[in-house]
Specification:
single chain, 869 residues, alpha+beta, 6 domains, five-stranded antiparallel sheet, 12% strand, elongated, disordered N terminus
């Protein structure tokens, strides 16, 4: 027999009957018979109709997919709330205990009571506990955790219209029951199988009587009573215990393997004696010719009445691993935040003169990602994060040209002009809202293609929600407290439990949370794994403007002020003891090469770097003046000699286009070039004492001579020196990538208020009581239409006469109306004026005065009672 256990993280409850069902389930559910049962809502629509505006608002806020489009009335709202797609989405957003409660309702007999659900969750320890519901009388619960959590879980299910009815007659919506109840094609996550009645549906009456005889029950005259007797045996604790006492030990071992699921097992044509004993006594019932199943009632007895192996009524706590001084956390976070700004600047500065090419399928090649990682001195996954962060903030995009490349956008220049604190808040807010997830880079999409940085298919809808929730969990800890990452992930898994039907999505949420904890450290949102003061300001402000302002104000004093000087040293280096002002940093990037970074940046002057500055159009005197102005130490003599020596040689040779030529007033220098073997690839020949021609383009000739140690300068056709400064490249104006939300956006209060008002008005029109049709009309087609709840069709003359009479008597009418787009609707109006083929009336449905063309009114009827506006 093959058995196995279901995924225990799929935590879903299940049960129909068990000990306590006779008085807490069916009898408790039926105790509302009489006046209470007659007044109880019979459908979900009736239950929603009894809600106040706040209740409907809470439903639409929790399930925003119901708003698109706004339902015409409450009946349509209830219908939409019961559709499969909407119910699946609502179930996926339940926490673990609410989902366990929904599972308990799914396998309980309908309607069920609070006591039955409590027993399914608490098991034998909860017998009698909470029998009167959260507010009713009854013995005290022996499981206070479940007793405290169950009312809230049921309130959540009711608020989201997944459960309706009072505590004595609760019902789960049919679609949720179908999704959560166990079946052969979709085993219950709780591991419970079908009931005795379901498992014996195709069994012969003779076989049922044989089972009754085996368990020493009297025979019956029909199959229905036989099934009832067997189910009653399995739900009777004493008789069931006595039956199991007679079972062979090997048979009990088989039950132990099936009790927590899966409840199905394979058997051979000639099963072993223990399996045969269980089959003969009805403890294993046939599910197919070679499959048996443990019935739900028997499994619940073996489980002690519990639907779950481990109910989890309380969310796991986030564990604090260390406590630091808040000042130390803020200082560490600010240092990392400033490093984040420098990293983004370094990346985009490296790409601004012509970034990496865009792949044909979109994105960045693996080779270019490795180069970026080497430039930033980080690992490739971290480099992918910085690249995607710059892209998400709108600082980086493709230029859209024929040779398409990734380069900075014009927004990058505006970003550079902002104070450091404002630049940081822009990066953080872009990260919080982004759905692009760099952590998936290197994985594969649905078609097996590798996911590339800046490429398509990196959007993951849950990312913003997970990031924000992680920050809120950290914010709930005392200032300076560092959280254990595993406890954070466990808390998130409880709040949004894994779903067996979508294991990839579950794993993704866990991975996003892990990436979030790493990325918060990189961005300086946390320091020493504790949330910083600036990050707390991001979470507490009401509006985005206040959020950015408060966060920038909190972190700005911790950023080091930019310096306007360097320290020149005799070894041809300059030390920047801190961040430099932007003009000074840009000039040094041209004049020197960065040798090392850290708390202080070391720049090294070389002949190539000095020549680069001269190529950009600066003269030697400009360089001397610049260094003297910005150095706190005297300019070392070796550096002055280096600048003068390179300047003396710079431009002595002139390169122009012949295809290319070399011109120099010193013919001895040209002789030296011709005699050098390294010039052979340039294929030079003398045209005149001071001119050499080359069979290479000017750029190759420049590079070749520079490689030989010369300092040539390019010249124009007029003989002027060409400045070869590298021009920065920018894209046309670009907008940041739009996040791809995980479902519909959360509605604001204005939209919710308008939607509830429209639903109420539409429901008023749909449920308004009409006067009986007159006898003359009863013989026509209109009477039949009114009899089945539809608006009677009236002739234009009848419509006009009825509307005019209503305007004179100030009475309300029920009309059918077709707008210019052909959309039909029902409305309740109070006519005020009728003239020129139009009726002006107060529309109770829209709660405003409107004018309707009479020819678009399909029918009209008087109301028995006028509605209240």
């Amino acid at each position: 027999m093959g058995t196995g256990e279901l995924d225990r993280e799929a935590h879903v409850p299940a049960r129909t009957v068990g000990e306590g069902d006779s008085d807490g389930g069916h009898s408790g559910g039926d105790s509302g018979s009489g006046e209470a049962a007659r007044s109880a809502p019979r459908t979900l629509a009736e239950a929603l109709r009894t809600r106040g505006d706040e209740g409907l608002t809470a439903l639409l806020r929790a399930r925003p997919d119901l708003l698109n489009p706004v339902p015409n009335d409450i009946t349509q709202l209830a219908t939409r709330a019961g559709t499969r797609a909407s119910v699946v989405r609502a179930l996926e957003r339940l926490d673990r205990f609410a989902l366990q409660t929904a599972q308990a309702l799914a396998v309980a007999a309908e309607p069920t009571s609070y006591a039955t659900v409590f027993g399914l969750l608490a098991g034998d320890s909860g017998d009698g506990g909470g029998a009167g519901g959260p507010d009713g009388a009854g013995d005290p619960s022996t499981d206070p955790a479940i007793d405290a959590a169950l009312p809230h879980a049921l309130a959540v299910l009711r608020e989201q219209a997944l459960v309706w009815g009072d505590d004595a007659r609760m019902r789960l919506v049919r679609t949720a029951r179908e999704l959560l109840a166990p079946s052969p094609s979709q085993p219950s996550p709780t591991g419970l199988g079908p009931t005795v009645a379901e498992a014996t549906a195709g069994m012969s009456p003779q076989r049922l009587q044989e089972i009754l005889a085996a368990v020493e029950l009297p025979g019956t005259h029909d199959s229905v009573s036989a099934v009832g007797a067997l189910a009653a045996l399995f739900t009777d604790r004493e008789r069931m215990a006595a039956l199991l006492d007679t079972a062979p030990p090997e048979a009990l071992a088989v039950l132990d393997r099936l009790v927590w699921g899966p409840p199905y097992g394979e058997v051979t044509a000639d099963p072993a004696p223990p399996v045969r004993w269980l089959r003969d006594h009805g403890l294993l019932l046939p599910a197919s010719p070679r499959t048996v199943v443990l019935p739900r009632e028997a499994a619940l007895h073996l489980r002690g009445g519990r639907a779950h192996r481990k109910p989890e009524p309380a969310a796991p706590e986030v564990v604090v691993t260390a406590e630091h001084r808040p000042q130390a956390v803020d200082s560490t976070a600010a240092g990392q935040a400033y490093t984040a700004l420098a990293t983004v600047e370094e990346l985009l500065k490296d790409w601004q003169t012509g970034g990496p090419a865009v792949l044909r399928a979109g994105g960045l090649s693996v080779r270019d990602l490795k180069r970026a990682a080497a430039t930033l001195d980080v690992t490739e996954p971290i480099a992918a994060f910085w690249i995607e962060l710059a892209y998400g903030a709108g600082l980086l995009a493709s230029d859209g040209e024929a040779d398409e490349r990734f380069v900075p956008t014009p927004a990058y220049d505006m970003w550079l002009d902002l104070p450091a604190a404002d630049r940081w808040t822009e990066l953080v807010t872009a990260w919080l809202a982004a759905t692009r997830t760099p952590g998936v880079v290197g994985g594969q999409d649905a078609k097996g293609r590798t996911l590339a940085v800046l490429g398509p298919d990196l959007d993951r809808g849950p990312a913003p929600e997970v990031r924000l929730r992680v920050l809120h969990l950290l914010a709930d800890l005392p200032p300076g407290a560092a959280a254990d990452p595993d406890s954070v992930l466990a808390r998130l898994r409880w709040e949004r439990p894994p779903r067996p039907a979508r294991p990839d999505a579950v794993d993704l949420r866990t991975r996003i949370a892990g990436w979030t904890l790493m990325e918060t450290e990189l961005l300086g949102i946390t320091g020493r794994h504790a949330l910083s003061t600036a990050a707390r300001a991001l979470l507490t402000a009401d509006t985005p403007a206040d959020r950015n302002r408060l966060a920038a104000a909190a972190i700005a004093p911790l950023f080091p002020p930019p310096l306007d000087h360097v320290l020149l040293q005799a070894d041809l280096t300059a030390v920047a003891p801190g961040p430099l002002e932007r003009p000074l940093a840009d000039a040094l990037d041209v004049l020197a090469d960065v040798e090392s970074k850290g708390g202080a940046t070391v720049y090294r002057f070389t002949p190539a770097s000095v020549r680069r500055a001269l190529d950009s159009g600066q003269a030697a005197a400009d360089l001397h003046a610049f260094l003297a102005r910005h150095s706190r130490t005297p300019v070392p003599q070796p550096l002055s000699y280096l600048i003068d020596d390179v300047a003396r040689k710079h431009g002595h040779l002139r390169i122009g286009a012949a295809s290319a030529y070399v011109r120099c007033d010193d013919d001895a220098l040209l002789d030296e070039i011709l005699a050098d073997r390294r010039s052979q690839p340039l294929r030079l020949r003398r045209l005149a004492p001071t001119v050499l021609a080359a069979q290479a383009d000017p750029a190759s000739l420049l590079e070749g001579l520079r490689a030989m140690g010369f300092a040539p300068a390019a010249e124009s056709a007029e003989g002027d020196v060409l400045i070869t400064r590298a021009d920065t490249h920018r894209t046309p104006p670009r907008t940041p990538p739009v996040p791809v939300p995980d479902g519909p956006p959360a509605p604001d209060d204005t939209l919710l208020g308008a939607a509830v008002k429209a639903i109420r008005a539409g429901d008023l029109a749909a449920t308004a009581t009409r006067k009986p049709a007159p006898a003359a009309a009863a013989a026509g087609a209109g009477a039949g239409a009114e009899a089945d709840g539809r608006l009677p069709r009236t002739t234009p003359a009848e419509t006009l006469a009825t509307v005019q009479a209503a305007a004179l008597t100030n009475s309300a009418l029920w009309i059918g109306y077709v707008n210019a787009d052909g959309a039909a609707s029902q409305r309740v109006i109070a006519p005020v004026r009728v003239e020129g083929g139009f009726v002006t009336a107060y529309d109770h449905t829209a709660d405003e005065v409107r004018t309707y063309p009479l020819h678009r009114i399909t029918g009209v009827a008087e109301l028995a009672d006028e509605p209240h506006p």
